[in-house]
Specification:
about 220 residues; 8 helices
């Protein structure tokens, strides 16, 4: 049973037990998928980050990016494992880049970068949030404005915490968080949807190529 089937069975069971409308099943299933996906992604990310020696940076990036994504929405792959792959690579990349760039950027320059990023991200939020996500289409103006405000409040909190981290903890942590927030901002922009779609297709092609090669190898060994 894959993740989609497991979430679907739980959603169907709960909808019957709680006498929910049938049109709520897809929304409920998607919610369970998100929860299961977050648990699996968290376990894999923390394990790999620990092995690579970048655990603090990856955890900080994951927290910064995940909260922002819940509020702002954004592009998704059409398959869970492809979405997981891109997510893991993004956060690991943010952690590695945070450590690498932290060696070369002064505290003053990093604070300037954070402030500039905050202004640009805020403009993107005002113009584009909430980004479209599966089974959660928001058309109400009041709902859209609510997510814009929540995203802006979050960005202000992120900026304040990041500046404190730069001065009193570690520049690499703040940089990793900045990269994660930047990636998430791109994900709910029109170019971001195109990029995710292209990467999704690329991963599908790589998976098909791997399966075909494995099949040919097995046939040759017979």
């Amino acid at each position: 049973m894959n993740l989609n089937q497991l979430a679907g069975r739980i959603a169907n069971y709960l909808s019957k037990e709680l006498a929910l409308d049938t049109n709520k099943i897809d929304t409920l299933r998607f919610g369970f998928e998100i929860i299961f996906a977050a648990l699996i992604k968290g376990f894999i990310l923390i394990s790999l980050a620990y092995l690579l020696g970048i655990l603090p940076e990856v955890v900080f990036a994951m927290v910064c990016g995940a909260i922002y994504r819940l509020l702002s929405g954004g592009a998704h792959c059409n398959g869970y494992w492809r979405c997981l792959t891109l997510g893991v690579l993004s956060y690991l990349g943010a952690g590695e880049l945070g450590i690498y760039l932290g060696r070369y950027l002064s505290i003053d320059l990093l604070v300037y970068l954070l402030l500039t990023g905050y202004l640009l991200f805020s403009l993107c939020v005002i113009a584009l949030v909430p980004g479209e996500v599966p089974y959660k289409k928001i058309t109400s103006i009041s709902e859209r404005n609510k997510f814009k405000i929540l995203s802006l409040v979050y960005l202000s909190s992120w900026l304040g915490i990041s500046i404190i981290v730069v001065h009193y903890v570690n520049s690499s942590l703040a940089l990793a968080g900045f990269i994660a927030v930047m990636i998430q901002t791109i994900s709910f922009s029109p170019p971001g949807y195109k990029i995710i779609h292209q990467l999704d297709n690329l991963l599908v092609g790589l998976a098909k190529l791997f399966i075909e090669r494995r099949y040919l190898t097995n046939e040759a060994d017979r």
